[in-house]
Amino acid sequence: MRLHYLPFLLLLPIFSGCLKENCVETRSYTIYTPIYKQADELRDGVGIEPARPLNSPERSTSMVIFC
Q1: Cα–Cα distance measured from residue 4 to residue 9, given in angstroms and rounded to the nearest whole number
Q2: Helix or strand run (H / E) with residue 62
Q3: Residue 52's closest CA among 44, 60, 42?
Q4: Which of 24, 37, 50, 65 would bridge with 41, disulfide CB 3.0–4.6 Å?
Q5: 4-61: per-residue pLDDT in tens?
Q6: Helix-strand-coil percent breakdown of the chain, rounded to 5?
Q7: What is the four-CA torsion angle of 8, 14, 20, 23, rounded to 10 degrees?
Q8: Beta-carbon neighbour count of residue 7 at 10 Å?
Q9: Rg of the chain's alpha carbons, rounded to an integer?
C-alpha cells in the first residue's frame, strides 16, 4: 500500500519550488483633473450658420442596397 504513495512523494520536492513566488507588481496611474467652462463660454462656441449651396448634389444622395 505504501508503494502507491511513493511516486507522489518523489514528485513533491519538484513542485515545492512553485510555492515561492517573489513577484512585484507595479501600477502607475494618471489622474486627470477636469477643466470646466462657464455656461456663457459654452454657448459662445455654438452657433447657426446660413444654408450653403451643394457643390455636387449627385454625390450627396446615394443609396446602398444590401442583399
Answers
A1: 10
A2: none
A3: 60
A4: 37
A5: 777 777 776 666 655 566 778 888 999 999 999 888 888 887 888 898 887 776 665 5
A6: 40, 0, 60
A7: -120
A8: 9
A9: 36
